[in-house]
Amino acid sequence: MEFFRIKKDIPFMRHALVFNVISLITFLLAVFFLFSRGLHLSVEFTGGTLIEVAYTQAADLGKIREGLGKAGYTDIAVQNFGSSQDVMIRLPLKEEQSSAKIGESVMEVLNAEAPGATLRRVEFVGPQVGKELAENGSLALLLVILGIVLYLAMRFEWRFSVSAIIANLHDVIIILGFFAFFQWEFSLSVLAAVLAVLGYSVNESVVVFDRVRETFKKVRGLTTPQVLDHAITTTISRTIITHGSTQLMVLSMLIFGGETLHYFSLALTIGICFGIYSSVLVASPLVMWLGVSREHFVKPKKQIEGANEEGAVV
Amino acid sequence: MNRYPLWKYVIVAFSLLVGLLYTLPNFFGESPAVQVSSAKATLKTDTKTLERVENTLKTANIESNGIFLDTNGVKVRLKDTDTQLKVKDLLEKQFNPDASDPQYVVALNLLSSSPQWLTSMGALPMYLGLDLRGGVHFLLEVDMKGALTKRLDSTAADLRSLFRDKNVRHGGINREGERISIRFRDEETRTKARNALQDNQPDLTLIEQGEGSDLKLVATLKPTAVKKIQEFAIKQNMGTLHNRINELGVAEPVIAQQGADRIVVQLPGVQDTAKAKDILGRTATLEIRMVDDTAGALEAAMAGQVPFGTELYVERGGRPLLVKKQVLLTGDRLTDAQPGFDSQTHEPAVHLSLDSTGSRIFKELTRDNVGKRMAILLIEKGKGEVVTAPVIRTEIGGGRVQISGSMNTVEANDTALLLRAGSLAAPMEIIEERTIGPSLGADNITKGFHSTMWGFAAISVFMIAYYMLFGLISVTALASNLLFLVALLSLLQATLTLPGIAAIALTLGMAIDSNVLINERIREELRNGASPQAAIRGGYEHAFDTILDSNITTLIAGVALLIFGSGPVRGFAVVHCLGILTSFFSAVVVSRALVNLVYGGRKIQSLSIGQIWKPGNSTVASK
Fold first, then answer.
1. A–B: how many Cβ contacts below 8 A?
2. What domains appear along chain A, each with residue ranges and CATH number?
3. pLDDT > 80? residue A234
4. Which residues of B touch A200 (CB under 8 A)?
5. Which of residues 2-41 of A touch B (CB under 8 A)?
6. Rounded distance between C-alpha atoms, residue B434 and residue B129, angstroms
7. CATH number, domain B31-113
8. CB–CB of A199 and B555 under 8 A?
9. N or C: which end of chain B has fewer CB within 10 A?
10. What is the rounded radius of gyration, in angstroms, for the C-alpha atoms of chain B?
11. Which of B142, B434, B549 to mutate to test the interface with A (most CBs of A within 10 A)?
12. B517 contacts in A (CB within 8 Å)?
């Protein structure tokens, strides 16, 4: 089997501007939704209580809501979780209920109003913890960005590292944009997925850049767009197959992983799709705009040698 | 060409063998067990306990699958859960005849059923996190501010008595937030006070303020003292928690400090959170009452006629004691209790510190009752225990109390511990709680396992269909990666959580990248007209740089998650980072060893790597 039978280098760079404009629009949309709708943060970040209960028959959500409302709980969210038997109850943090007694009192209410519930899971997070998590999350993101920029700058060239990180941050913002637009729950594991994707799709750029460097060194007389086209074309098969394989795994998690891994794998799916797009069609044009050229890779010694041959080689 | 020296094959074979060995325990599952461990610090579980367990089972005619002693206590492996419950009840009765005063913790546990020779090699199954086996997780925060104010209050009381002793006239001592301010009318007294303080209170930093006739001395705790108080508060709270959790009968509780002021408590298998929280949050109270020494009263009480207004208690030594019901002083007035020695007789002693109100009450109490006995009782769960019942020799002022006589150092330590337990140094608050039911835990394992299995299967099918033999080799390398990863997790006993399983799946999905890179490169070399052997070598060599770069960038993200992540993210990051390391070895070394084994060292016409399509005329592919 051979999926990709490409005769000539595909002229990706001819359409670079189009791709960049598309990216910019998606990016701006994502930013817009992030600000207008905001992220639907999970209890881990906001603080509060989350209770998961299971019924043997389909649960009557109305009754549960009513019962809890009568017991004096406000701002509660009651929803099905996975199946009609499983119910997730979310309670916000309250000043006067600083203790973690909420779990038990809710169970008492449920037993009185809608009996038959078994407690599956309780999560209580105090306000201190949530704030710290948000801080640590941003610090982790910062460390990843710095680490990758420095490493790529060391291994390649600053132009590459800057374009790679811009392209991949654009992925991160788009993932967040999706979460904001659909109001999916943004939890700690989603954050982990986002950061993992960041590390992963930088791979993609690395593979392309590796080829760019190699082509610059080996093949002379090509313009920068031609080199980029060649690098992308020769690696596109690997790109698609690798991402396809990873996506197979993620898909399996999406199908079999249940609710807990649902948003985790969803974030990965979006990350992988946009990862392909951005590392190939965003990072490479950026490198081009930043003005990378053959001189950046060929060592000065060789340049003197090559100077005589300039123009004579096709 | 393409032959590995023998030692490389040996390394690969050896690492695979070790991987297999350490993965093995995960397949044996777990068998029910009962664990007997000590509930008191003074009580040790030893071979005698082991014999006692053996004899108990023998008399009851119950067969066990092995009884052994380890650092946690005596463990009995049993054949099913019914016998497990039966044995638990039996041992409970045998070891704790008095249910209200448990000496031992008898708990249900699960033991790995892997054979002894594996266990003795340190090969254990992976350590499952709470979200996979069910249980309770608490994060408690110690109120350090509370601990400090409490300490400052008692220091203020100390200062008052100090000035009284030294005849320093001050215009009032007040605690203002985290400072103590002392007023003076003239400069001379202030200097005198300052000198007295410097000699007696080395923990305080003094600053002079005010002028004219309104002079002040502001005392704050030195940073080292603050640190010491905080460390002490955490240690004491952890000790108290430890004692209380023993009561719950949990097989493997985790109590660990996290950061400067937090304590993590994990109770695997505990489902009754209400009870757990009740016990964790419970504060034992301390009461000081007078002993009724009226002649004949004790005898009457022993005979069953307890005089009105008194209660009969048993002293820790075993002697009966009649104590009046009236409470004179409670534990909230106690700020510290430390074991030590009497400065004159060098006998073991317990030193107590009381706050200002406590000192005043205590002074009156001792003044009125010289020659009589008082009793210090620890009231927990509505039941009292006499910690100590010393005779009052003189009036004691100043809030510094020393109890000495008829005790050894161990007893002094125990008494101090009990007294401290009665007054937690600083209140704690539950700031995070996670309860996972056992069914949810089992569900999570199944879900994680299925995701990984089907994902792996799908990748295998695709890889073999697309790359033929090279696909099979890639899949074998990927399987060895999984083997190494599981072995490493088992060996390190790192906690495996559901995000951890997700990380295993994701790492496998990403690890295949290296093999795809290699295979694509080999195809490309072939396309460019290289001979099969040269193509293999070229493919591996050219792909190496790219594999290294891409693994390092992924690792950067993993390490960042490891550093800043907590809870589920950390579980994910640990597995992710380990997975990247193992995948590097398996994708590059193991797969190459396999390729060399199949193709190396002989002349071959073609490679089984799927169809290679050659374009008629390539524009740039040639040099």
1. 250
2. 12-40+129-305 (1.20.1640.10), 48-125 (3.30.70.3400)
3. yes
4. 510, 554, 557
5. 2-3, 5-9
6. 12
7. 3.30.70.260
8. yes
9. C
10. 35
11. B549
12. 207, 238, 242
Please judge whether B553 and A151 are an interchain contact, meaning their C-beta atoms are less than 8 angstroms apart: yes
Strand partners, B69: B74
Q: Which CATH class is domain B145-226?
A: alpha beta
- B311-339 pLDDT, tens per residue? 888 776 677 888 888 888 877 777 777 78
Using the predicted structure, report yes or no on whether residue B407 has a pLDDT greater than 60. Answer: yes
The answer to whether A139 faces chain B, any CB pair under 8 Å, is yes
pLDDT given at position B420: 67
CATH 3.30.70.260 maps onto chain B at: 31-113
For CATH 1.20.1640.10, the residue range(s) in chain B are 6-23+437-599
Helices A188-218/A158-182 angle, 10° precision: 150
pLDDT digits (tens, 9 = 90+) for B53-77: 888 888 888 888 888 887 778 888 8
Q: Which of B211-215, B268-272, B475-479 has the lowest mean pLDDT?
A: B268-272
- How far apart are the C-alpha atoms of A53 and A61, rounded to whole Å? 12
With an 8 Å Cβ cutoff, are A122 and B435 in contact? Answer: yes
Chain B contact present for A95, CB below 8 A: no
Cβ neighbourhood burial of A186 (10 Å; 0-12, 13-18, 19+): buried
From A137, A140, A155, residue closest to B549, measured CB to CB? A155
**A-chain residues near B430 (CB < 8 A):** 99-100, 124, 126
How close B469 gets to chain A, by Cα (Å)?
13
pLDDT tens digit sequence for B562-594: 888 777 788 889 999 999 999 999 998 999 999
The answer to whether residues B316 and B388 touch, using CB atoms and an 8 Å cutoff, is yes
Is the Cβ pair B553, A202 closer than 8 Å?
yes
Determine whether the interchain pair B430/A100 forms a contact, defined as Cβ–Cβ distance below 8 Å: yes
- pTM of this prediction? 0.76
With a cut of 50, say whether residue B282 has pLDDT above it.
Answer: yes
Region for B608 from its dihedrals, namely left if φ exceeds 0, alpha if ψ lies in -120 to 50, beta otherwise: beta
479-518 of B, contacting A, C-beta below 8 A? 498-499, 502, 505-506, 508-510, 512-513, 516-517
SS (H, E, C) B244-313: HHHHHCCCCCEEEEECCCEEEEEEECCCCHHHHHHHHHCCCEEEEEEECCCCCHHHHHHCCCCCCCEEEE
The answer to whether the Cβ–Cβ distance between B557 and A196 falls below 8 Å is yes
Band of residue B549 on the pLDDT scale cut at 50, 70, 90: confident
pLDDT reported for residue B452 = 93
Alpha carbon distances (Å) from B231 to A280, B234, B336: 54, 5, 14
Taking the Cβ of residue B584 and every Cβ of chain A, the question of whether any pair is shorter than 8 Å is answered with no
Q: Is the pLDDT of residue B284 over 90?
A: no
Contacts of residue A288, Cβ cutoff 8 Å, sequence gap at least 6: A13, A16, A224, A225, A228
Tell me what pLDDT residue A304 has: 45
Query: Contact B435/A1, CB-based, under 8 Å?
Result: no
Q: Flag if B516 and A241 touch (Cβ within 8 Å).
A: yes
Q: B525 vs chain A: nearest CA distance in angstroms?
A: 12
CATH for B6-23+437-599, options being 1.20.1640.10, 3.40.47.10, 1.10.620.20, 2.60.120.10: 1.20.1640.10
Where do the DSSP E strands lie in B301-452?
A: 310-314, 320-324, 329-330, 334-341, 348-354, 374-380, 383-388, 400-404, 428-436
* Contact map slice: A 47-66 vs B, CB within 8 A: 52, 54
Indicate yes or no: CB of B566 within 8 angstroms of CB of A137: no
pLDDT at A314 over 50: no
pLDDT, mean over chain A:
82
Stretch (H or E) spanning B155: helix B144-166
